[in-house]
């Protein structure tokens, strides 16, 4: 049985919320400023690249006559190269100031945007995507999670949940990216995105820093909550060889297959198959991003009361229903309804995976466990974007088969998640001292 976090449902958390923000000196705890800065950067990266790049899809197809599969490879590269780069980013975070790494990542992402604004060949597009992929990894959620962990111990989970909301709000940027493409064209829009990234790198970026050992405010700031600690510390070798690890990561692979396929293709589907304007397609991404945010909160509450694997399986239900609705959609508003259905499952699946990794395998090797997990999940995402694009090409531009396949894979994830029980034998053998 997954151990419950005793402090997570206490009424005292709400009653003492104000004290969460202040240190013992009465001033706002700097850790929260770091969280806010990291969330802002994550929001920008998510909005411009995770959500926003999908609005460029049809522009590339129309101007260069590229197939959906060939175009999808570029998006798959961004996902997969980002996963491969994650261990290197983790190594750099242990050796260099995070704000320097973040700035380098934002500047590399900006360079990728500028390069993409001048593309004329397919390989130019792929090269620009490679730069963006590495830049995103060096400046996105991995860095934000790392710095947040250095500022918090007792309130780390709460701080992480606040930081991840940056990604949930990223769809607001995607909407404006779509409007900019419609008004000014895709090349100028990419150059403007690059300019914004440069400005953020040298303004907000300086706040994203590791907590100094001699910081004048105590760790966590004010408050009297008890620190959470894992009662088991499973070595990385034993963790990755366990049945639980394999099943969790298989479920993760299929989850990101359908998640990324949806994000990359839904705007193009609404625009090309259903005849909507680019602005409406971008609005769908905005609606999706905002509607996915509450799913994180609801799933967090459920995760404190029920087995995480069961809650993980539950998050697949909105995907299954939503994809089937997309398969039969004939008007733009049908797709908007489907987007609203998918959103809570999408948002809810995000905080569950790190929670499962921590509860199952402990915190001693959590970074490496999550790093391997991210590589697996990005492989699923890369396959999802390409496979759905390939199915569209094979079916003469029709998305119906692709959405049905996505629904089936989401359904396959349910039993995988349910049988991925905690490695209780390993946990018993590796009790923390």
Largest sheet: none
Q: Look at the structure and give the mean pLDDT.
A: 82
Order of helices and strands: HHHHHHHHHHHHHHHHHHHH
Based on helices, strands and strand pairing, what is the structural class?
Answer: mainly alpha
How much strand?
A: under 5%
Instruction: Give the overall shape.
Output: globular
- Percent helix, as a range, is over 70%
Give me the number of helical elements. 20
Radius of gyration: 21 Å
Number of strands: 0
The low-confidence runs, each spanning 5 or more residues with pLDDT under 50, are 1-15, 223-230
Distance between the termini: 21 Å
Task: Name the assembly state.
Answer: single chain
Would you mind describing this structure in some detail?
- The chain has 433 residues and is mostly helical.
- 75% of the residues lie in helices and 0% in strands.
- The chain is built from 20 helices and no strands.
- The protein has helices spanning 11-15, 17-20, 30-51, 57-64, 68-93, 98-116, 122-139, 141-151, 156-168, 171-184, 186-201, 236-241, 243-273, 278-303, 308-314, 316-328, 332-361, 366-394, 400-419, 424-429.
- Helix 3 (30-51) packs antiparallel against helix 8 and helix 9 runs antiparallel to helix 14.
């Amino acid at each position: 049985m997954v151990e419950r976090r005793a402090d997570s449902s206490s009424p005292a958390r709400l009653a003492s919320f104000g004290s969460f923000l202040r240190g013992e000196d009465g001033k706002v705890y700097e850790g929260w400023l770091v969280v806010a800065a990291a969330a802002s950067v994550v929001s920008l990266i998510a909005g411009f690249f995770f959500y926003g790049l999908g609005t460029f899809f049809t522009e590339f197809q129309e101007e260069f006559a590229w197939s959906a599969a060939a175009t999808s490879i570029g998006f798959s590269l961004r996902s997969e190269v980002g996963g491969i780069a994650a261990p290197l980013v983790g190594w750099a975070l242990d050796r260099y100031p995070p704000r320097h790494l973040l700035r380098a990542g934002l500047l590399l992402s900006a360079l990728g945007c500028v390069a993409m604004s001048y593309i004329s060949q397919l390989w130019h597009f792929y090269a620009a995507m490679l730069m963006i992929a590495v830049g995103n990894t060096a400046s996105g959620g991995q860095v934000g999670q790392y710095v947040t962990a250095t500022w918090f111990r007792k309130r780390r989970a709460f701080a992480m949940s606040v930081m991840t909301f940056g990604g949930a709000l990223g769809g607001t940027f995607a909407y404006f990216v779509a409007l900019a493409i419609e008004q000014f064209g895709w090349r100028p829009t990419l150059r403007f995105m690059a300019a914004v990234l440069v400005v953020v790198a040298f303004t907000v970026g300086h706040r994203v820093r590791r907590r100094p050992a001699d910081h004048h405010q105590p760790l966590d700031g004010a408050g009297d909550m008890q620190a959470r600690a894992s009662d088991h510390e499973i070595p990385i070798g034993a963790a990755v060889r366990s049945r639980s690890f394999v099943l969790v990561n298989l479920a993760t692979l299929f989850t990101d297959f359908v998640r990324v396929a949806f994000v990359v293709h839904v705007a193009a589907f609404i625009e090309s198959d259903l005849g909507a304007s680019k602005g409406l397609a971008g609005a769908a991404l905005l609606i999706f991003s905002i509607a996915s945010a509450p799913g994180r909160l609801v799933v967090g509450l459920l995760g404190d009361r029920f087995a995480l694997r069961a809650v993980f399986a539950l998050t697949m239900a909105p995907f299954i229903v939503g994809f089937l609705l997309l398969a039969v959609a004939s008007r733009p508003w049908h797709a908007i309804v489907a987007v609203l259905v998918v959103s809570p499952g999408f948002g809810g699946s995000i905080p569950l995976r790190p929670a499962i990794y921590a509860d199952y395998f402990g915190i001693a090797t959590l970074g490496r466990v999550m790093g391997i997990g991210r590589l697996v999940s990005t492989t699923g995402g890369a396959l999802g974007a390409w496979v759905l694009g390939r199915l569209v090409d094979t079916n003469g531009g029709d998305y119906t088969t692709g959405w049905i396949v996505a629904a089936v894979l989401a359904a396959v994830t349910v039993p995988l998640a349910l049988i991925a029980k905690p490695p209780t034998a390993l946990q018993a053998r590796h009790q923390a001292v």
